[in-house]
Amino acid sequence: MSDPDLIRLQSILAGFAPQGRAALLPALHAAQQLHGWIPESVATEVGRALGVPLADVHGVIDFYEMLSRQPTGRTVVRVCSAPVCALAGGDDVADALCGYLKIEPGEVSSGGEFTVEHAPCLGWCDHAPALLAGEAALGRASPQQAADICAHRIERPISLVGGDIRILTSNCGQGHPTSLADYTSRGGYTGLKKALMMTPQEVLAEVKAAGLVGRGGAAFPTGIKWEGAAKAAAQPKYIVCNADESEPGTFKDRILMEEDPHRTIEGMIIAAYAVGANRGYFYIRGEYPYAFKVVSDAVDEARQAGVIGKNIFGSKLDFDIEMRLGAGAYICGEETALLESIEGKRGFPRIKPPFPTTQGLFGKPTVINNVETFCNIPLILERGAAEYRKIGTERSPGPKLFCVSGQIQRPGLYEVPFGVTLRHLLFELAGGFKQGRKLQAVLVGGAAGAFATETNLDVILSFENLSAAGLPLGSGAVMVFDDTADLRDVLKRLGDFFADESCGKCYPCQLGTKRQHEILDRAAAGAAVAGDRERLSDVGDTMIDASLCGLGQTAATAVLSAMKLWPEMFERQK
């Protein structure tokens, strides 16, 4: 490292040094942006500046997919290889790029300009096949675009946003972020102002009465979670937004952040008031660089306007938000793994209890919710719990966002009240299938979901009705496959996703996801062997019963679902 480079690096690290280890991830991002990768000398400087042992610095670098200790191209092109993008030709796009650049995946092109990699999911499932070239996203890519992509001639896609109602998504669908002025002119921050005229206990009661449950997949009652943190005696308390949306088929939080960032910020401030927190963290997955910029700008805009900071809207509430960018680890969507990541560690899930509400970030009481959950909060406070409950069903109140992708006419984000049917979502809103095609399967709930068939089209989309049908709501991902899709290949890619994303902390998941992938790989190649079906069942049941966190506990859900519907899929093809 030359003297000017060392001086510049040390200057950057000086700004992170006061935070110590908690600044490790942003410091590594800054160092990699400066050098393109993280050489040993740079890792040493980072560790020295933050007081982190070099072995721990290496451990964090190696844990995250988007950090590298090996040279890469100045632009890393990540091509999605998840099922929906693969069906749309993602592998052909990656092959065309490598052919054009005369490299293999992972290699550096001549001149050091490009590296091409397969990515597990980029959150652009509605624009399959998708890729990320540096910080620029491209949807519906084709092999013929290789030269344009390498010349950085990329136009950002705009997602389709629709539905029966447009409440949470009222400011979305234009392809650009809503400014603070636009947001407030449309009623934004009304919910916060009403909350500040109530006591914190009254705000908690309103959220509990609304019946809101977490929209990230776990469906835990939001008001009860907040109440637990509010009652915890320790100080300080934290509010964390989990925007590490990384599961194949899910892209709703990306759209909410990119097009209406202040709604989530407002929800976080209301949460802070309700539980007595003064600091928040907004953690966004590394594959969402544009969303990170939009939200960062919105936080700065809110701070300059006095919407966050000291004495918010003339009240006694002090609350500020710090941004965090992930680095490519699906496991960090698990709440305790995300907290570990903010603390500058590898994203390993913690054993629970204790729960974050009592011992969360830095060992202090913490509320952690995802983007869609926080976006519901201003609506509840603005309209009141009674009016909120008029949307949806008795046991599943409120609006819900569904991400529809795959072999369907109009992939996009659809907002509906709980209580509509799957048929309505797919055929009346998303347009049904291309001419001559018919439904083969719908993967409901994302990669960790379960398969539905034509017999399930009239199931009502609510927590209680989906559960009765043996289908998880999850985060609201709905991946559609027509009669041309090879479901063996779909399952193989799901198996590859979980095997690659398992953090390795617990053996049932670490080994189980590997064995599952091996069997699914054989089935996709038509080389299944006797006993594979039983092996898959045993591996799946073991992961469900013995894994430490939700990744391992749900990694076999889609596979076990497919085994019940299509047992012949796991037999050797003649």
Structure notes:
There is one protein chain. The chain is an alpha/beta fold. The chain has 5 domains: 3-63, Arc Repressor Mutant, subunit A; 75-150, Glutaredoxin (3-Layer(aba) Sandwich); 171-388, NADH-ubiquinone oxidoreductase 51kDa subunit (Rossmann fold, 3-Layer(aba) Sandwich), CATH 3.40.50; 399-482, Ubiquitin-like (UB roll) (Roll), CATH 3.10.20; 487-570, de novo design (two linked rop proteins), CATH 1.20.1440. It is built from 24 helices and 14 strands. The strands form 3 sheets. A 6-stranded mixed beta sheet has the order 5-11-10-14-12-13, sandwiched between helices. The chain starts with a helix and ends in a 9-residue tail after the last helix. The model has no long low-confidence stretch (mean pLDDT 96).
